[in-house]
From TrEMBL:
Residues 250-389 form the Acyl-CoA dehydrogenase/oxidase C-terminal domain. The keyword Nucleus does not apply. Its EC number is 1.3.8.6. It comes from the Bacteria. It comes from Longimicrobium terrae. This is Glutaryl-CoA dehydrogenase. Residues 24-130 form the Acyl-CoA dehydrogenase/oxidase N-terminal domain.
Length: 396
């Protein structure tokens, strides 16, 4: 028997160093359940929905059937970090917009209520949210305030009798066009005061306009929220949210989670590129046999391997309580940058076909731009890490 005939058949598996083998049985089971769901429900229709800027509505009912949030938000304050991370990764592998939908609802909105809400608020909202009977959103970013939210929120809140009045706008708020509740963050009247509110979208003073014309994550329903004289009862103010440091507790978890979205997006692009290289023929043979094509694939695989290692380690640190802001910032900065590089290599490998949705890389190439920008830009996360390692703040 020839050496060629006994060679192990090549695999699409991007987990070159076997990181998934270090997951617990429960974590891996969760990962595979979500992968099956995304392949069955989202993958066949995502290109059409992406073109139409439409959310894949069946995803909501299908993810509810897995009952993931029911256990986590019943017995624990939130999903175990690695289990939540691999959900984001598997969703982003097929559609980063689906990962954003999940993260906003299950991470940012539910996390705000779990960490900062009253007993009554938790009892009212968490059961319905964990069963996906209601959908949540999270409103922090504003039209003129992105990276400067810590010091420059323009949404204002003031006490008025037995309630509060909110005035201002929020922009880029995922899920806001169809959510039942939006966590709105606003600057208070006292110096340094930042308060969180559960704004019910049935409130007559809640107005939202869908943001269209995006080139990235077009399946995410992003909205521009306008609140003018919006009255909110005291019972809907998050009592444990009083300064921006309380917002930071929630964002610290979310930032590490976005690093997993970057991993998933890069994996999806790599898999599309490798499958394409094996089947696309030029000069009488598959392009996978050409040196420069193999170089691109190896660079992509190296990026993914490094991203997986960093993302998994920072999430384990979150589990054992040793994760700090700079750890999350480095994970997000590195993984988002390497994701951007990886999807560009995938698109480039396909030549002219790389700009067609049908080959998979083009959509992920575009969606990576959103991952690169949200949950702290590359520059902001760089400066957070820079401050930690030098002891000098370079923020202006």
């Amino acid at each position: 028997m020839s050496k060629e005939s006994t060679r192990r058949p090549p695999s699409l598996d991007p987990d070159f160093y076997g990181y998934f083998g270090t997951l617990t049985p429960e974590e891996n089971e969760t990962r595979l359940k979500v992968r099956e769901l995304m392949e069955r429900v989202v993958a066949p229709v995502v290109n059409d929905h992406w073109q139409r800027e439409a959310f894949v509505q069946p995803l909501r009912a299908e993810i509810a059937k897995l009952n993931l949030l029911d256990r986590w938000y019943r017995d624990e304050p939130g999903p175990p970090p690695v289990a939540r991370a691999v959900i984001s990764m598997e969703m982003a592998r097929v559609d980063p917009g689906s990962a954003s939908f999940f993260g906003v609802h299950a991470g940012l909105c539910m996390g705000s209520i779990a960490l900062c809400g009253s007993v009554a608020q938790k009892e009212e909202w968490l059961p319905a949210l964990r069963r996906w009977e209601r959908v949540g959103a999270f409103g922090l970013t504003e039209p003129e305030v992105g990276s400067g939210t810590a010091g420059g929120l323009t949404m204002r809140c003031r006490r008025d009798g037995d309630g509060w009045v909110l005035d201002g706008q929020k922009k880029w708020i995922g899920n806001s066009t169809f959510a039942d509740v939006v966590v709105i963050w606003a600057r208070g009247e006292q110096p340094g005061a930042v308060h969180g509110f559960l704004v019910r979208t049935e409130n007559p003073d809640y107005r939202v306009e869908k943001i269209t014309g995006k080139i990235a994550q077009r399946t995410v329903q992003s909205g521009l929220i306008t609140l003018e004289g919006c009255r909110v009862p005291e019972s809907d103010r998050l009592p444990e949210a009083n300064t921006f440091s309380d917002v930071g507790r929630i964002l610290r978890v979310g930032r590490a989670g976005v690093s997993w979205q970057a991993v998933g997006c890069a994996i999806g692009a790599y898999e599309h590129a490798l499958a394409y290289a094996r089947t696309r023929e030029q000069f009488g043979r598959p392009i996978a046999g050409f040196q420069l094509i193999q170089q691109k694939l190896v660079l992509m695989l190296g990026n993914i391997t490094a991203m997986l290692g960093l993302a998994l380690r920072v999430t384990r640190m979150q589990e054992d309580g040793t994760q700090r802001d700079e750890h999350s910032a480095l994970a997000k900065q590195f993984c988002a940058a390497k994701c951007r590089e990886t999807v560009a290599l995938a698109r480039d490998l396909m030549g002219g076909n790389g700009i067609l949705l049908e080959h998979g890389a083009a959509r992920l190439f575009a969606d990576a731009e959103a991952i690169y920008s949200y949950e702290g830009t590359n520059e902001m996360n760089t400066l957070i890490v820079g401050r930690a390692i030098t002891g000098h703040s370079a923020f202006v």
